[in-house]
Every structure is written in structure tokens, then in C-alpha cells.
Specification:
Layout lengths: L1 H17 L14 H4 L25 H19 L5 H9 L8 H5 L14 H25 L13 H11 L8 H18 L8 H13 L4 H4 L8 H8 L21 H12 L12 H6 L3 E4 L9 E4 L3 E5 L6 H16 L6 H12 L3 H9 L10 H11 L11 H13 L1 H13 L3 H25 L3
Parallel strand pairs: 1-3
Antiparallel strand pairs: 2-3
Helix pairs in contact: 1-8, 3-6, 3-8, 6-8, 6-9, 7-14, 15-17, 16-17
């Protein structure tokens, strides 16, 4: 560990001072209490603590042993790759850089002062968390690749329940370490990873992380291959992956920001373009009413959950990627929304998506309709539970921008134009929804006709 500490300090100093690639800023927050009290379990780790906010909790103590084992395995890779990094060490000795205080860039990323318990070393704990995460990602990638018997006895990656808990824990806003820590550590062991895989290795930490989270995200492999610049931490990476560049009427893009100073300006400019004036905040009509108006709701396969688009031929079609909600994804949505609420520099796309879906799904009939279309899946969650999710997601949430304003305006205008279709559908549902009501209506019409005829012939006898 001592050798890794030295190597980490050297690499951090080089990136921060010489290359200026690390510019720490606040990006890891405590979840606001008003959100936490709504569903506390969604924001607390179940198995492992990462970073300082939940360290030392007795409920997470059993995982500390596994963290040490994974750290030892990672250090073994580092030792094996030490020969491959001798050239870098020689280069560093030829061009020494004044060392910086290694805690400062990390402390700058948290929105409160980080204190370490007496007798514990902050850097060692940080590196241990980073080593654990990377070794977990590497082991999972190797297991997926060749299903080696080597991992059959691994109590973490060979345990489906544990993997779900790790998905949950590593995507928590309060359970993060700066992304540059993972990048530095991966750069150190990458030569060994390449050697073990015949000269091939995942290109970046982003690829490793998204490969680990991909089963949870229910998205295709394009998210792993895409480039995500300037990630702050793992949750930020998941936020960026949800905004994967797509085509269509709502042109969402990942902001490929090379100059960090322009990030906020780009986000506000994008918000202005996508939702001018924020005139619409959700749909006026629910899913059932839209279908009654002649609008088709169609399942759309894609890389991004927020890739909701419209197409128009003879009728308006809303293309919606399939939605899958379980306990882990429920937590992910809540933490992404909490992240958007906490930071002033990131877009509110996930919050906008939930607002749109909440306006689309207002009753169990809407849920059933979307299930039938294949847009909502997973039948073990009841219809009412889906409704409750979308309502509770937005409790105590105050979005800055709504990114589907243009789409909602287009859909509402179409539905208003064909209002009579909804009226006819309501009439049919009220009076002709069953065979008995249809029979009664026909009988009433026949009786009315006979009554008219009888009256006519009474007034005008032959």
C-alpha cells in the first residue's frame, strides 16, 4: 500500500500541477433532509460505504473484510505492473514536480468539511475505496467475459443479491469518491490488465463502470462504448449516460465540455433551445386520453431513457423507450434527481423525464395501457405502485428547466385539434362498454322509433 500511496501522490501532482487536468469542484453532496425523509432507504448504503459520509456504520462493517481482500488483489496487480511503469518513474525523477497536499483536491469535491477519526489515515481509506471499486469492476468484467471458475467462490460477484446491493450503493449521491481517484489508480494498473488480457484492456474507467451497471440500466452496449468527458463521480457518469446523444425531434446531447468554465453557459443555452419560455410543464392529457385523441404511443428501443420523440405521418406518434422500475432503479431515479437538485451546473433531464411520465400516467388505466404497449414492464409491481413512484419522485423537488416543453406543446395541440374523438370515446365507454349496455341502447332506439311512428299514425290516420 505504501508504494501505491507514493505512486498516487506523484500522479495526482502531475495531473493537477503540470497538465491541469484535475480541477476539483464541489460535486458530492449530502442529500437534502426534505428528500431523505420521503424514503430514507433509497439514499443509504445497504452493503458498502464509499467515501466519508457513511464510513464506520456498524451495519456496513461486514463488507470491510471484503474491501480489504479486493484491495489486496488490486495491489497484487499493481505490484505485477510495477516493471511496466518504471519508465514513467524514471521520467518523473528527471522532471520532478513540487508535491501538493494530496487531501486538498479530494476535500474540495465534498460540500462539507471531511474529518478523519483519530488513528485513521484519510488517504489510505480513499485508496482502499478506489482499489475496491476498480477490482470489483475488473472482476465483474472478467466474469462476464469468460465465466471463469475462479470467481465461483467469490461472495460478491457470484451473489445476485449482493450485486444488486452494490448497484444500489455505488449509485448513491452520498456514497461517492472523486472520479479522478479511480482514473489515477486505473492508469497505474492498466499495463498489468493489458498483459493479462493479451494486450487488450477497457479503454477507461467509464467503460469498466458502465459495463458493471449495464444490467441495471437495461440499455445496450453503446453506452459502454460512448465517451463521457469530465465525469465527477460514478453517479455523475450514470447521469451523463442517461443523456446519451440521440436523434429525433428532441435533440438531447451529452455536453462534451472541454472548457469547464463554459459548462453552465452550455446547459442554460440548451435549456433555452429545448424549452423556450418553459410554457409547458407536462402533458395536458394522460395516456388514455391521448390514445382516444388518435395519438399512438409506441415502444421505442434506444440508448437513452429520455429519448422520447414524436413522429407524424397520418397520425401523431409518441416514441417512448421502455421503462423498468424496481427497488434499485427507484433508488437510482431518486439519487439522480437529488444530484440535479443539489448542483447548479447540471441539466435537469431526469427530473424533466419524471415530470413528463407523471403527466402521462395518472390512473391505473394509464399504467395498463402502457403495459399493453410494452412501454412499462415488470408485472410484479402493481399499477398503483407505479403511480405512487412517479408522484413521490417529485415530492419536495423544484426543477429549474423542463426539457420536454416543445414536445408537450406539439402533443397538446394535436389532442386539442381532435377533441371530438375523446368525446366519442367517452360516450362509447359510458354507454356501450358492455353487451348489456349496447343491447339496452338498441332497445331504447327501437322503442323511440316505434313511439314516433305510433304518434305519427295517430295524428295522421289513413
Amino acid at each position: 500500500m505504501q508504494k501505491l500511496r507514493i505512486k498516487y501522490k506523484e500522479r495526482l501532482t502531475e495531473l493537477y500541477v503540470r497538465e491541469e487536468r484535475i480541477r476539483p469542484e464541489i460535486c458530492i453532496y449530502r442529500v437534502p433532509e426534505k428528500l431523505r425523509k420521503l424514503k430514507e432507504d433509497a439514499y443509504n448504503p445497504r452493503a458498502v460505504s464509499i467515501g466519508p459520509f457513511h464510513r464506520g456504520k456498524s451495519s456496513l462493517a461486514p463488507m470491510e473484510h471484503h474491501k480489504l481482500l479486493y484491495t489486496a488483489s488490486f495491489l497484487g496487480s499493481f505490484i505485477a505492473s510495477s516493471e511496466a511503469t518504471e519508465k514513467y518513474m524514471d521520467s518523473y525523477m528527471e522532471h520532478p514536480i513540487a508535491p501538493i497536499h494530496v487531501d486538498w483536491p479530494v476535500n474540495k469535491c465534498y460540500n462539507e468539511e471531511i474529518k478523519c477519526e483519530e488513528g485513521r489515515d484519510k488517504l489510505t481509506e480513499l485508496l482502499q475505496d478506489g482499489c475496491f471499486i476498480l477490482q470489483l469492476f475488473l472482476s465483474f468484467a472478467q466474469l462476464i467475459k469468460d465465466s471463469s471458475d475462479e470467481y465461483e467462490s467469490d461472495p460478491l460477484i457470484n451473489n445476485a443479491w449482493m450485486i444488486r446491493d452494490l448497484w444500489h450503493d455505488l449509485a448513491l449521491l452520498e456514497n461517492q469518491i472523486p472520479f479522478f481517484v479511480l482514473e489515477i489508480l486505473y492508469d497505474i494498473v492498466k499495463p498489468c490488465v493489458m498483459k493479462m488480457n493479451n494486450g487488450k484492456a477497457p479503454e477507461s474507467v467509464s467503460s469498466l463502470a458502465l459495463n458493471f451497471f449495464k444490467p441495471m440500466l437495461s440499455q445496450n452496449s453503446n453506452i459502454v462504448e460512448h465517451s463521457y468527458p469530465d465525469c465527477k463521480h460514478l453517479l455523475d457518469l450514470l447521469h451523463k449516460s442517461s443523456l446519451l446523444a440521440v436523434s429525433g425531434d428532441t435533440a438531447f446531447t451529452v455536453y462534451d465540455v472541454r472548457d469547464r468554465r463554459s459548462t453552465m453557459a452550455l446547459n442554460h443555452a440548451a435549456a433555452a433551445n429545448l424549452s423556450p419560455g418553459n410554457q409547458y410543464w407536462g402533458l395536458k392529457y394522460c395516456a388514455e386520453e391521448l390514445v382516444q385523441s388518435g395519438i399512438e404511443l409506441r415502444k421505442e428501443s434506444g440508448d437513452s431513457l429520455v429519448n422520447i420523440t414524436t413522429t407524424s405521418d397520418r397520425q401523431l406518434i409518441i416514441n417512448i423507450p421502455p421503462l423498468f422500475i424496481d427497488e434499485v432503479r427507484d433508488s437510482l431515479f431518486r439519487n439522480l434527481i437529488a444530484y440535479e437538485q443539489s448542483s447548479i451546473k447540471i441539466s435537469h433531464h431526469v427530473t424533466s423525464y419524471v415530470i413528463l411520465m407523471k403527466s402521462l400516467v395518472r390512473s391505473p388505466r394509464d399504467v395498463k395501457l402502457l403495459r399493453k404497449k410494452g412501454i412499462i414492464s415488470q408485472y410484479w409491481i402493481e399499477d398503483q405502485e407505479y403511480l405512487s413512484c412517479f408522484v413521490s419522485f417529485l415530492d419536495e423537488v423544484f426543477p429549474r428547466d423542463f426539457y420536454f416543453s416543445s414536445l408537450c406543446g406539439q402533443v397538446d395541440a394535436y389532442a386539442n385539434k381532435f377533441w371530438f374523438r375523446r368525446k366519442m370515446s367517452a360516450l362509447y365507454r359510458t354507454y356501450f362498454s358492455t353487451a348489456w349496455s349496447m343491447t339496452s341502447f338498441i332497445a331504447a332506439i327501437c322503442l323511440f322509433i316505434l313511439t314516433v311512428l305510433q304518434t305519427y299514425f295517430t295524428i295522421n290516420p289513413r
